[in-house]
Amino acid sequence: MKLPRFLNTLTGRFLMLTVIFVMAAEIMIFVPSVARFREDFLLSRLERAQIASLALLANDSLDMDLEDELLANAGVYNVVLRRNEIRQLVLSSPIPEQIHATYDLRDASALELIRDAMVTLFDPEERVIRVIGDPVKQAGLLIEVTLPTAPLRIAMIDYGLRILLLSAVISFLTAGLLFLAVRALLVRPIKRVVHAMTSYAQAPEDTRRIIEPSAKVAELREAEAALKAMETELTASLRQKERLAQLGGAVAKVSHDLRNILTTAQLFTDRLEMSEDPAVTRSAPKLVNSIQRAVNLCETTLAFGKAEEPAPTLTGVRLAELVAEVIEGERLAIGDFDLSFAEDIPATMVVRADREQMHRVLSNLVRNARQAIMATGECGEISVAGREDEGEWVLSVTDTGPGLPPKAREYLFQPFQGGTRKGGFGLGLAISAELVRGHGGRLLLKRSDETGTAFELHLPKGFSISVPGQAGMSVSTEAAE
């Protein structure tokens, strides 16, 4: 059942809960109140009966009509008065039926009174009961009357309805006052905060839309102050990102033009290397290396400066073939340097990945390892291994180089925060990590110390893939739980 819209608001629910709680409290008061009313009703009947009996004691010759009138005014059938250890039937009239129950009000506890009141209230049958109590002003040892329950029950119902009506009026009046108070003290300030948040979301760069704390309630004022601090920080961050985006666009343009200029300069350096001048011969390699580094920086800056990498086109890639291709390219770069490569990839291992992007990732990892080992001038080894389980494919690239510099480990995968080698810019690992995340995977540094460095690439499995060039061949995989 769908609640009305009003009851789904804070004020509506507060109003409803207030009525419920006040009514519950009134009901808790109602039960003992009805019990008290019943006791007072019976005590009044005892008092009237005692007065009627005193009239008879004062005049022994009352006629039957007067006696009936006294009993009718007292609301009882008969009266028994015990005085001086003598039990005397003072007034009497015919009882229409047998006595149903006897109630002694002299030593009755609160629980007994409540129990007896509920029994009387919910018993629709007309009964005759006996009631025993103490005479007023010690006019005897006890007084005992018999009376019908119908007038008592009618009086109790009337009293209960009046109590419930009064409780309802008090409940709704209290709820209404609380409703107005909550609306003024809580709901309006909350709506103001919501309005301020909505207004700020429309133009977060506009500092005029930042909320100014004004609530009088301490908790709401603290919330407004926290919101103001958050909006101020967010606005500053947005401005900084906007400036960085503009700067990035300018850097990309400069890098593009600078790369073209350096490419032309690189052509001229090739001629310088053929010069027979000893000074030129000594300086040319350094110039070539410097220009090559500048070209690499421009290319990596342009690659990283793209708004985003394209979404990977996932196909079945034979990992052994891809690793062999990457390693073959690196072998051309080492020349006569004593560096060996080891491959441990199952021939049948097929991964779900974008071949071009995965080639870039592996090239970055293997190239970083090669450059780190060659920078030491000592022999070394680079090994690439692959394995798989029910949930993922794992590819590891391990080298025997000197390990990553401390700054590179501290700012790993963050561009321009420190490269993995001297003169590096850290863009290769940042781009690789981004490409792997695009595959839903992770690029992790497992180890880096004086014995070498090990990276692990984790790619999740998910659904069936097909291997290009193999008609009807597919590999079915299931995601790890």
TrEMBL record:
It is a multi-pass membrane protein. PROSITE patterns: HIS_KIN (PS50109). Its EC number is 2.7.13.3. It comes from Celeribacter ethanolicus. Pfam families: HATPase_c, HisKA. Keywords: ATP-binding, Cell membrane, Coiled coil, Kinase, Membrane, Nucleotide-binding, Phosphoprotein, Transferase, Transmembrane, Transmembrane helix. It comes from the Bacteria. This is histidine kinase. It is found in: Cell membrane. The keyword Calcium does not apply. The keyword tRNA-binding does not apply. The chain crosses the membrane at residues 14-35, 163-186. One of its GO terms (molecular function) is phosphorelay sensor kinase activity. The lineage of its organism: Bacteria, Pseudomonadati, Pseudomonadota, Alphaproteobacteria, Rhodobacterales. InterPro entries: 2C_sensor_his_kinase, HATPase_C_sf, HATPase_dom, His_kinase_dom, HisK_dim/P_dom, HisK_dim/P_sf, Sig_transdc_His_kin-like_C. GO terms for cellular component: plasma membrane. Residues 220-247 form a coiled coil. Its main location: membrane. Residues 253-463 form the Histidine kinase domain. It catalyses: ATP + protein L-histidine = ADP + protein N-phospho-L-histidine.
